[in-house]
Design goal:
It contains four helices and four strands, in the order αββαααββ. By secondary structure, it is α+β, with helices and mostly antiparallel strands. The chain has a two-stranded antiparallel ribbon with strand order 1-2.
Length: about 90
Amino acid sequence: MTLDELITHLREQEVQVFDDGKALKLHAPKGVITPHLLETITLYSADIQYLVRLGDVRVCTARWEHRPVWKYSQMAHTFVCRACRKEIAA
């Protein structure tokens, strides 16, 4: 599974990914996180943590509510969520 496939799978399964400053935190419906999925998440944890800290819209915790505050970052070459980056109040 590639990183993009993993992110798509997590989004489809309504798994929310957070960064508490030390490690990734997952909020998922019961039974969604299997041992195999957890192993894959661990494999890509550094990449996922980078996307979360960047505020990449692919890992935005509230995609539809935050959509009006998305902006394109020329430096990152991707859309970022200003609410997830804590640039504005959600």
